[in-house]
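Q: What structure does this chain adopt?
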Amino acid sequence: MGRRTILLIAAVVIAALGATMIFLYVQGVDSRAEAGQQPVQVLTAKKVITAGETVADAQASGKFALTSVPSNDIVPNALVDTTEISGDIALSTIYPGEQILAARFGAPGTQQELTIPDGSLAVSVQLTDPARVAGFVTPGSSVAIFLSSVASTQSGSTTTGTSPNFVRMLLPKVEVIGVGSTTVLSQTTTDSSGNQTTEQISKTILTLALNQHDAEKVIYASNNGTLAFGLLNDKSKVSPDLGVTSKNLFK
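A:
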């Protein structure tokens, strides 16, 4: 066999090996690409989840959905259910299509930044436990605000004459965007006979989203009376009226 023939055979063998290696490489790339496109179920937002909204409320409103996403597109630590974030609130706005991450949720009051709706400003008031519906008011809640105008004189921590002149709705619907810390204060009340009673009262700071005019109302009312919230749901019916005084209490 001549040298030329041997070189020709060697060239053919090398070409065949090269073609085989290219074929195997392409097959591997295709397999990896196909594997990366395999759909995986992951929890996503179906509707906008607002900052401060509880997971329970978002779930009840159908804002979560299991969605098939290519495995290459799965965000690290994306959730497949709400078990890990049960009882938490959204720390920031989550938009439709976003994959749900535990890091985007936390306990009420732990949000680092306050999300204020466009056109609004944030105003905080301090309420007792009964006035904030025994703690059931949370970020994302809608509340009606009532004002009790109290004829009283105050000296230091002592309050006298605590009979309300009237109770009236101040604002029919306001969004709560934050719940702050709770402190315990001592309050001494003196009745008409001069007897004093001291009690420990828990007060919590709640932050509301208001337009300028309503903010002025709330600030004035909180400095000149006592505020109380009424917790609203989708079927609540409220409307401003003349309120209640001692003259129409039983009418």
